[in-house]
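Illustration 12: Aminopeptidase P family protein.
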Amino acid sequence: MSQSSIINSRIAALQKTMAKDRLQAWLILSADSHLSEYLPEYWKLREWFSGFTGSAGTLVVLTDKAYLWADSRYWVQAEAELKGSNVKLMKMGDGQTPSYSEFLQTTLPEKSNVAVLGDTIAIENFVELYENLDDHGITLTTECDPFDKVMKDRAPLPTEALYLHDPQFVSETIASKIAKIRQTMEDVEADVHIVSTLDDIAWITNLRGKDVTYNPVFLAYLMITKSSVTLFIDETKLNQEVKKYLTDNKVTVFPYDAFYDELENIPTNKVIMLDEKRNTYAALEAIDEECDILYMPNPSTLLKAQKSDADLQNIQEAMREDGVAMAHFYTEFEAKLAKGEKLTELDVADMLQKERSARANFIDLSFDTIAGYNPNGALPHYRATEDAHSEIKGDGLLLIDSGAQYQNGTTDITRVIPIGSPTDAQKRDFTLVLKSLIVMSETIFPADIPMPLLDAIARRPLWENHLDYGHGTGHGVGYFMNVHEGPQVLSFRAPVSDQTKVKKGMITSIEPGLYREGQWGIRIENLVASMPVKTQKEQDFGQYMYFETLTLFPIDTRLMDLTLLEAKEISWINQYHERVYRELSPKITDDKVLTWLKARTEAIKP
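Figure caption equivalent — predicted structure in C-alpha cell form:
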C-alpha cells in the first residue's frame, strides 16, 4: 500500500470515530502534553495522520475532508509529502489563506462540535479558540480521545534514563535556582508553581535525558511550593546516582501519571502560579475552580536564557571543539570531491557526525543535519532521506546547517560552499546574505530593547534589493539544552513583550537567508551572546549592548562578490577569520586540516 493510501485510510478511521462522537472536526496540533517543539514518537499524531514530517503544522480533519496548515518554510516539503493523499495544504501566511480558527468559523455550521486534545493545547490558545468558535455557535470540546484505538501501532512513551549534567559545567545549583523561583512566588504571593515545559525542568534540576531526539530533556512535571519540590516522572528512569541527587536536594519523586491527580488535590485556598503559554488546558481543567490562578511567565524561562559568565566560557570552548570538527570534515569532504568520489547529502551528515562525535564532551547532535544541494538548499527545513536525496556533483551551492550537543554547550551553524564554479548570481545572493549577517553582528542597541525590533536591521541589505526570507533572523539557543529556546526571538513577526527584551548572556542565532525555489538556497548562521558594551561613550542615555560572536568557523570567501562589500564589511570578515584561525589552529594537529583552515581564513582585499 502506498504512503498516500495509508494516510487516507488513517484519516478515514478517525472520521469513523467522529460520527460516533458527534464531532464535525478534529483539530490535531504539533504538540505534546509539555507543549514541546520536538516531540517523542508517542505524540507525533499530526505526522501519523497526515504524512507531513515537518516540525510545525496543524491538521484539521472534517467529516469528509482534511487540511494541513504549514508556514512558508514547509510549503514545498508539504506539497511533496501530501501528494496523492486527501489532505489539502493550506499555505499559512501567504496573505490569502485563513487561519484554521477562521476556517472552522466560516466552514462549520452552528451547533457543530470541534475536538482537540486538552493536553496538547496551551491554556491561552484554548481560551482564544473556544471564544472565537463560541461566537459562531460552535463548541470546542476536550472530552474525546480515540487515538490509542485508532493508532494500532502507536509508539510507547520513552523510558530513557536520566543523568546528571556534569558538575564541572554547572554554574548554579538546583537549590539556588529553586530559591530564585520561590522569591518570585513570594513577591506575587503564590503558594504553588507548576512547570510543564521540559527544558525548564531540566534546567532547574540540572538533570538531562534522552526522551526527545537531539534535545537532552526528559518527560516530567514539576510542582514547587514554599516548602516542597515534587518531580513527576517515570521512576524507572532514575538510577541510584540520580535518586540520591534528588534526595540530597530535597526533591520528592511522584509517578509521572500522578500529576493530574495531584493538581486536583491542591487545596482551594491556594494561589497557583502558572504560565498560560506553557501549560496545557488539561492542567487547568484538573485544578479546582475555587483555586486562584495567577497567570505569569515561568521565572525559569528568563533565568535560563541568561547564561552566566562561566556558562559562556564553557560554550566558547564547545565552539572551538565544534569548529575543529567541522574543519576536519570540510578538509576530507573537499579532498574526496577533488578526487571525483561520489558523495551525497547523506554522506555529508554521516561525515559531520563522525567528526563531532570524536570531540571532547560530545553527547549528540542538536538537530537533524540539513545538507541541501542546489534546489534542496532552497527548502529551509530540508532533510535528506534514503528515499530522497541528491548527489553532490556538477556546479552549484551546498548549504549545510548542523549542530551538536556538548556537555559544555549547544552549537548551531550554517555555511554554504561552492561546488564547481558558482555563478555571478549565486555570488551576489551569497554576498547580500553575508551583509545581513554582518550588519546584525555589528549592531549596537539599547539594553532591554525587545529583540523582535532588531530584525529589520538584519534585513536591510536584502530589503534594499527587494529580497527577503520567510523565517525569523534568529532564535534563542540553550546551554546543553534545546537548540531552539525562548523567550527571546529575532523576528519582526514575533510579539513585542517584556519577555522578549534583550538581556545579558542570552545566546541567539543570526541566520539571514535567501531562497530561490528550484534553484538554490543560502543561509549563513552564527551564534552570538548579548553583552554590555565594554566602553560607554555616553552615560546619559542608558546602557548599550552588542552581540559577541561565539561561532568559530570560516565563511567561504570564494562565494563573496567583493564589489558589493564595503571597507568596514571586509574588515569585519578579515578580523573574524583572523580570530577563527587563532582559536582553532592550536587544536589542530593534522597538517592537511591546518592547511585547509589557513587557506579559508586568508585575508581578502577589495
